[in-house]
């Protein structure tokens, strides 16, 4: 546990990625390390969220995750009107019709946002402006090599840089680029992930980067218990990066309809689909995916145009579902990993951390007993 404690100050190497500030603060206060998904906010709202965390984290360390794709399909100076022009009206009409079939009334203007996507480099830079004004202990990038500006600015601020990878070759490139922490995320994970399983990916990444320089590796993908955490660390991981387990906590940003679905779901009820962001990401399977991945679909648009449709549309879906629309509940979905099959109840984030610690200690004890046998 010492490499992680030295790097980011966490007492227990349980990293909790969440879009909810309450989860981030609760996990850090309990001895883990909360990481706020910064790309779900505008620079203005991210400032509000981080100020709140600063006031409620009791001085414990936390980090920020910002999603800046390495490969940009759009120019750096693209505006919202140019982005909107790339969205065919057929995709909007398909969305409006899908909502209507689930008793949600909407027009074309209701199913597309006019906000600049957070995945654009200029937005990412603005989010970094905010993040580095706060006492963060880690900044993380996903979807490719961490931008050189992120690494340079983090060095100046004395903040370590982390990066998510889904393949050994990606880890090698990240380490050569200068990152300080690797998150090896297996295909079981929620959100954007690769195809290699966590059990295979973690030792493969550790072995691949060892000759380059010492960089701690966190295991990610399907990890929902302290026993799994112990198993990953037995393979050489310095800790674990978790996300899905926090979606079923009482503090999470998810609504009751989705949490109910999580509890009822099995590990086979997720799907890797581009129908939410334009890139394959693992989500809870719903009528949304049956439609967008079906034969009548116009097909998912590239990032970020698909997100420009899905963001306002899912807000409408969630609002309708929480208002009692049973047909809307059929569409309810969110990013979640295959570990959803291990969710059986809603608990507080603090309780989850405590359970991780106890389960981890029990698992380590079993390993020690086996080693001494």
List keywords for this structure.
alpha/beta; 373 residues; TIM Barrel; 43% helix; globular; three-stranded antiparallel beta sheet; 13% strand
What would you note in describing this structure?
With 373 residues, the chain is of the alpha/beta class. It has a domain at 2-79 and 116-249: Aldolase class I (TIM Barrel, Alpha-Beta Barrel). 43% of the residues lie in helices and 13% in strands. It is built from 15 helices and eleven strands. The strands form two sheets. The chain has an eight-stranded parallel barrel, surrounded by six helices. Helix 7 (148-157) links the parallel strand 4 and strand 5. Helix 10 (226-234) packs across helix 15 (349-372). The chain is globular.
Task: Describe the structure concisely.
The chain has helices at residues 2-8, 21-29, 43-56, 80-85, 89-100, 121-131, 148-157, 168-177, 198-209, 226-234, 256-264, 287-292, 305-322, 326-329, 349-372; strands spanning 14-18, 33-37, 62-67, 139-142, 161-165, 181-185, 191-192, 217-220, 239-242, 270-273, 281-284. With 373 residues, the chain is α/β, with parallel strands linked by helices. α2 (21-29) packs parallel to α3, α3 (43-56) runs parallel beside α6 and α8 (168-177) crosses α9.
Unreliable sequence segments: none
Q: What's the CATH class of the domain at 2-79 and 116-249, please?
A: Alpha Beta
Q: Kindly estimate the percentage of residues that lie in beta strands according to DSSP.
A: 5-15%
The total of helices stands at: 15
How many angstroms separate the termini?
A: 25 Å
Label the structural class.
alpha/beta
* Mean pLDDT value: 92
Overall helicity: 40-55%
* Inertia-based shape: globular
> How many β-strand stretches?
11
Q: So, CATH architecture of the domain at 2-79 and 116-249?
A: Alpha-Beta Barrel
The CATH superfamily of the domain at 2-79 and 116-249 is known as Aldolase class I
CATH fold-level name of the domain at 2-79 and 116-249: TIM Barrel
Give a quick account of the main beta sheet: strands, pairing sense, barrel closure.
Answer: 8 strands, parallel, barrel
- SSE order: HEHEHEHHHEHEHEEHEHEHEEHHHH
Radius of gyration: 20 Å
Strand order of the largest sheet: 1-2-3-4-5-6-8-9
